[in-house]
Amino acid sequence: MSYRSAVPSFLHTAFASCLGLLLFPIASGAAGGEKASANQAVKKLLEERLVAAAKIHELAVFAYTKGDRDVSIEQVQHDKAALLKASLALCGKKETRLEVYQEMLKDALEWEKMADKSVRNGARPRADALRARLFRLEVQIAFEEAKAK
Fold first, then answer.
1. How far separated are the first and last CA of the chain, in Å rounded?
2. Domain range holding 92?
3. For 90-135, how does the pLDDT look when each residue is reduced to its tens digit (9 = 90+)?
4. Dihedral through CA 131, CA 135, CA 138, CA 141, nearest 10?
5. 73 contacts 128 by C-beta, under 8 angstroms
6. With contact defined as beta carbons under 8 Å apart, do 72 and 101 qualify?
7. Model pTM?
């Protein structure tokens, strides 16, 4: 998996699914203008957080896949979790949230395979494969819980 393939597929789905929500401010009543302005400010901050989380994750993936020993799979997963949180914060509909979870699960499965291969090749410690499995299970559990709501 290249660092370029790890980020864009997830981000494309997250942006496409959630960004539309940023375009429609919620306003009602006499204080609607103030509420809409506050909502727009929050949405702008959420969008900025998503962009920052994506960039941080992209850098971690790049370093990890290039063999940088200073970047662990835990760091990549931590950054991916921050990206997931940022993406979900922009999603209002259950269907959209499920799409984000589904893409996240697909990505976690790819990382689990990549970690297993790296361990078999002796490039990474056994713990990386176990951490990748644990992360995939956490994402899968969250996905299943989201579907049940």
1. 33
2. 3-148
3. 998 999 999 999 999 999 999 999 999 999 999 899 999 999 999 9
4. -110
5. yes
6. no
7. 0.75
